[in-house]
UniProtKB/TrEMBL annotation:
Residues 1-21 form the signal peptide. InterPro entries: CHP02448 (IPR012661). Keywords: Signal. The lineage of its organism: Bacteria, Pseudomonadati, Pseudomonadota, Gammaproteobacteria, Pseudomonadales. It comes from the Bacteria. It comes from Pseudomonas graminis. NCBIfam families: conserverd hypothetical protein. This is Holliday junction resolvasome, helicase subunit.
Amino acid sequence: MSRVRLFSAAFLLVAATGAQASSFVVTTDTIVRALDASSNATSKISSSFHDDKIVLAARDDAASFVASEGEIRGVKLQGALQHIREVAPSLQASDAQLAQAILAI
């Protein structure tokens, strides 16, 4: 009887480890996809607007926005965000992603 319990415990341990590993892989894949989407949006913005005067003028406001985690929204940043969305209406990026892209220019 003790061998059966030992094998059962070993089997349960192996099964639990496999479930945790697959959960980790799914979570990791989700995070990587989200970061990749954010990175793609940032690179598209920074390459498209690297010589745009409105966007370049908003760099200080973008830095304040990012540093304050969205609490500080300067007038120049608001104008740049509106300008970017008018020029590239198909771009699906949050204000935080746009602010980070402006800083990357």
